[in-house]
Amino acid sequence: MTVRNLFLLPGDGIGPEAMGEVRKIIAYMNEAKNAGFVTDEGLVGGSAYDAHGAAISDADMAKAMAADAVLFGAVGGPKWDSVPYEVRPEAGLLRLRKDLQLFANLRPAICYPALASASSLKPELVDGLDILIIRELTGGVYFGEPKEIIDLGNGQKRGIDTQVYDTYEIERIAGVAFELARTRNNRVCSMEKRNVMKSGVLWNQVVTATHKEKYSDVQLEHMLADAGGMQLVRQPKQFDVIVTDNLFGDMLSDVAAMLTGSLGMLPSASLGAPDAKTGKRKALYEPVHGSAPDIAGKGIANPIAMIASFAMCLRYSFGLVTEADALEKAIANVLDSGIRTGDIMSPGSRQVGTTEMGDAILAEF
Amino acid sequence: MTVRNLFLLPGDGIGPEAMGEVRKIIAYMNEAKNAGFVTDEGLVGGSAYDAHGAAISDADMAKAMAADAVLFGAVGGPKWDSVPYEVRPEAGLLRLRKDLQLFANLRPAICYPALASASSLKPELVDGLDILIIRELTGGVYFGEPKEIIDLGNGQKRGIDTQVYDTYEIERIAGVAFELARTRNNRVCSMEKRNVMKSGVLWNQVVTATHKEKYSDVQLEHMLADAGGMQLVRQPKQFDVIVTDNLFGDMLSDVAAMLTGSLGMLPSASLGAPDAKTGKRKALYEPVHGSAPDIAGKGIANPIAMIASFAMCLRYSFGLVTEADALEKAIANVLDSGIRTGDIMSPGSRQVGTTEMGDAILAEF
Ligand SMILES: CC(C)[C@H](C(=O)O)[C@@H](O)C(=O)O
Ligand SMILES: CC(C)[C@H](C(=O)O)[C@@H](O)C(=O)O
């Protein structure tokens, strides 16, 4: 029987509640479909800091490295706002991304038709929206050195971060974008600030060269990242796949997520390179939303983003495409039926809590 | 009689057409109000490159340094897309900002009531919107060194940019934000990525300390820049003054500008520190929009952003507050009367060209 190893890192805030609903789906797939999921669980973020004094322990890192896929909830909260920089909750997530070499972050920004009116944009601009943002996740200003605060004396300090991109890093993320565009509408828009940044100049050159060499069947466009942010707000449906660097990707994918009106619903996948022998990719799946400490523990959090992240896991880590499609369809059906958590509540809908939402999706699955 | 020296840099694309309408207003103020404006004019961007092989000549830089204020149109266009990095059109603007030490970029994002329906956001979210974004303009990743592309051999290159902020740079921009907040709704939101960037950690600390020391009467909030982008889209009216670094400011002010539906209408001011002796600040005023090469030379460009930039010049460089108010009111009145350039045309309005729009505003002034 196939064994599929999942490592669960629920994290802080609403992470554990959301993860609970995925656990139900995993149990169901094991029982009803013999899916062979074996799960283990660890701590990350503030909860890991409380237990181990680190944002993730070495033991849990080793388990994450060994698993077929990692499911990640959310990290952070006011409780840990003043812990030292090196052990802040986010450091756990950043270490996972870096050590597992998860260079490709896939962030779909889709607008569920049932929720088009929840967007702050006019419904006709977002209804049916389906963008895939491919964000480079292991390079750029997030990890470049030097990264430090220097004391200059006289009460003056200097904060330094370094944006670095090498040709191979740009090539491989561009490759992911072009490959995925071929499975969609065959269009890629690459965003950088080549008019100001040398890394942007290189980014632009390498994406252009990669396109010319291997993917000239895909339609490629370049846009300055600031103009890209504007265009996302002005006319988001003009985009199919967007490829951009770590920091621009952070900003632009959040803006895109908010456009959909479905922030609590958006999943993401972070993938490594295929292993030379086995072809397997290391992978981590996490909701785009944060830990929402204000509503944690109340049983009202929306588990959809976490469940949709598990659907991406089925698709990208295990090739269970039918199951992934079915799970995504189950989410859409439940929304169509008018069942809502508080964050997406609208007049005439029925408001439910976290577990009822999970149950409803499982019943549809 | 007062002499007020203005240096005009119309630049490329629609820059010269838009500047033409400001020239009419200057002439009128000289004649009717004895304003004493003395103007000189230079080249910047692609047009400077064509004439001198540089994005701005040293002679024109000297004139910009000597003037009381610089009025800047726009730079760039496909004609100069492949000129060398050092002499690309944007280099002229960046040199002006750096050499004049214009560290404080003021970008109001206001929504003209007559245009609320032109926003891609729901009208109730933007109607009456009035945000002031204060962007640091002479530091950060725009100017930090090293900034280069290194050849690593083996077909590999490395693109490097450096984000650097010193305490004094953060202090002075925070001071501008707090001062201006006091003339508005007394609220400042500071945005950075302290969870990922050391410069963000320092930014956060210095803004907090500056607030505590000198501006504790102003309400201060901190937000991560990615969350800030989201909140701008979700509920823009929650903000009064936003203060942020050069790169985040570039992105966030463009998103904010687009929200208003009034992109072609938004002005900006870039200010230096007050001179120790005279109290005068160096200053440059420019529209937020670009050079729009596709419509250049057709007489259809919207001159409002350029005219509104001149209103900021009256206010900030010359203390002509009554005149600035009157010019801004004239713009609003013309819009209320249903006169529109093509970019903001709506059913039932009357479409006019660049000069007619300028004339209409002048007639109302
Ligand atoms: C939590 C934080 C470190 C992270 C990031 O900046 O990448 C988050 O904003 C994200 O987008 O996943
Ligand atoms: C033209 C370009 C260099 C500039 C910038 O990035 O600052 C522009 O986008 C702006 O916002 O003024």
TrEMBL record, chains A, B:
Binding site for Mg(2+): D226, D250, D254
Residues annotated to bind substrate: R97, R107, R135, D226
Pathway named in the protein's UniProt entry: Amino-acid biosynthesis; L-leucine biosynthesis; L-leucine from 3-methyl-2-oxobutanoate: step 3/4
Cofactor requirements of the protein: Mn(2+); Mg(2+)
Gene Ontology MF annotations: 3-isopropylmalate dehydrogenase activity; magnesium ion binding; NAD binding
EC top class, as a word: oxidoreductase
Catalytic activity: (2R,3S)-3-isopropylmalate + NAD(+) = 4-methyl-2-oxopentanoate + CO2 + NADH
Site note Important for catalysis, residues: Y142, K193
Classification via Pfam families: Iso_dh (PF00180)
This protein's UniProt keywords: Amino-acid biosynthesis, Branched-chain amino acid biosynthesis, Cytoplasm, Leucine biosynthesis, Magnesium, Manganese, Metal-binding, NAD, Oxidoreductase
Cofactor note: Binds 1 Mg(2+) or Mn(2+) ion per subunit.
Domain Isopropylmalate dehydrogenase-like: 5-361
GO terms for biological process, alphabetical: L-leucine biosynthetic process
Coiled coil region boundaries: none
Protein EC: 1.1.1.85
SMART domains (UniProt xref): Iso_dh
Binding site for NAD(+): 77-90, 290-302
Annotated localization: Cytoplasm
Record InterPro entries: IsoCit/isopropylmalate_DH_CS (IPR019818), IsoPropMal-DH-like_dom (IPR024084), Isopropylmalate_DH (IPR004429)
Annotated function: Catalyzes the oxidation of 3-carboxy-2-hydroxy-4-methylpentanoate (3-isopropylmalate) to 3-carboxy-4-methyl-2-oxopentanoate. The product decarboxylates to 4-methyl-2 oxopentanoate.
Family: Belongs to the isocitrate and isopropylmalate dehydrogenases family. LeuB type 1 subfamily.
Cited HAMAP family: LeuB_type1
Protein name from the UniProt record: 3-isopropylmalate dehydrogenase
